[in-house]
Amino acid sequence: MTTAPGLLRIRLCFWALAALGFLFPGPCRSQGLSDRWINNARQPWLDNRGKPLDAHGAGLMEFRGVFYLYGEIKEAPTWHLGGQKWESYRVPAGGISCYGSTDLVHWKFRGVALAPVHDPSSDLDTGKVIERPKVVLNPVTGKFVMWMHVDDRTYHEARAGVAVSDRPEGPFHYLGSFRPNGAESRDLTLFQDRDGKAYLVFASENNTTLHIQPLSPDYLRPAPGFQRILIGQKREAPAVFAWAGKYYLITSLCSGWDPNAAAWAVSDRMMGTWKQQGNPCRGKDSAVTYFAQGAFVIPLPGRPGKFLFGADRWNKKDLRDSRYLWLPLDMEASGPVIRYAEHWHPFPPEIMRKTRGGQ
Ligand code: GAL
Predict the structure, then answer these.
(1) Is residue 41 one of the residues assigned to a domain?
(2) N or C: which terminus of the chain carries fewer CB neighbours within 10 A?
């Protein structure tokens, strides 16, 4: 096919303008369809409707070139529950939201993936706690499986809930909850290995010790056997990823909604011996994870050794106004390194053009 010189000039002009726009984003707009970056300084982040992203304690999954973000819906005013051991600021459980994106920057609201109910006998009652949803696709059943932390408002039930859906955006059908091996399960994550096995990693034993629990082939139940790791180290907010034949785990310390130092651990196998290492964060405010707490780590497709670390900046007195902090995580010789970036793009322009629909 030949291109008329006029048309060629228009096309060149278009790409030049697009590249300029990529390098120099416009001033003072909230993230959303109008921004070209993950912008940690400029919040709230807006979705395609112009509404703030409502996806706290999130999980992120890629399916057929689309990233799906699942998070806690926090819509109502925060209230304080007295006489508790844990940080006792609470917000009604709003269920789980779902957003879709091809570039991790522009997010389209895909609906409420798991709706809460008004029924005190249900785990999903608005008066309870639904936190840290994580979703993976089960290769055997073809169903999307969501695990989440469900609890009563005092955080004493400490259970892992599970739901399934035929479509990534839901609606998910809630199946019930477990205490895997009879053990308490609070902050959790879900990790799917390349061999198709999936694992729940959760804070247990009064939040002093993490457990790793293999799941059944359909991912809907705990399978026999479990592993206690980082025993007595009081770690929570787990996020697991794999790189170059090893497994990595980023966690926070337990200090309720208040930020603290993250740490990384490494193991040769999911069910192996995990060795706690140092803080992956560098520079100013690294001792408090730049005022955030981790939620997930995902590999950036097409960028070997590059990951996205997603975290929450909790506003405990007004939880619905909590913000996000998404940073690049790079695998370096010393291990995972997270550096603060006010704004950044997960994909260089050539990767965007070649593999992510050209945005
Ligand atoms: C945090 C936990 C959050 C939430 C909060 C409640 O430590 O990571 O997901 O459960 O405690 O105080």
Answers:
(1) no
(2) N
Q: Which residues of 210-222 are buried (b: 16+ CB within 10 A; e: fewer)?
A: bbbbbbeeebbeb
Cα 358 to ligand 1 centroid, rounded to whole Å: 38
Six token digits for residue 211: 């457990």
Q: Is the Cβ–Cβ distance between 107 and 47 less than 8 Å?
A: yes
Residue to substitute in 90, 128, 257, 315 for testing ligand 1 pocket (most ligand atoms within 8 angstroms of CB): 257
Give pTM, 2 decimals.
0.90
In a domain, 317, yes or no: yes
Name the residue of 236, 253, 289 whose CB sits within 8 Å of the most ligand 1 atoms, as the mutation to test its pocket: 236
Q: pLDDT tens across 85-120, in order?
A: 777 999 999 999 999 999 999 999 999 999 999 999
Distance from the CA of 354 to the center of ligand 1, in angstroms? 39
- Please give the number of the atom of ligand 1 that sits closest to the Cα of 236: 8
Of 107, 67, 5, 46, nearest to 299 (Cα)? 67
Phi-psi region of 199 (alpha: psi -120 to 50; beta: other; left: phi over 0): beta
- In short, whether 202's Cβ falls inside 6 Å of ligand 1 is no
Which domain range does residue 186 map to? 57-355
Structure tokens at 18: 């697009």
The full DSSP string for 273-323 is --EE----EESTTGGGGGG-EEEEEEE-TT-TTEEEEEEEE--TTSGGG-E
Give the pLDDT confidence of 115-161 residue by residue, as tens digits.
999 999 999 999 999 999 999 999 999 999 999 999 999 999 999 99
Residue 316's CATH number = 2.115.10.20
Is 304 inside a domain boundary?
yes
Number of compact structural domains in the chain: 1
Say if ligand 1 is within 6 A of residue 171 CB. no
Q: Is the Cβ–Cβ distance between 256 and 312 less than 8 Å?
A: no
Query: Which atom of ligand 1 has the smallest separation from the CA of 57?
Result: 9
Atom 6 (ligand 1) nearest CA: 256
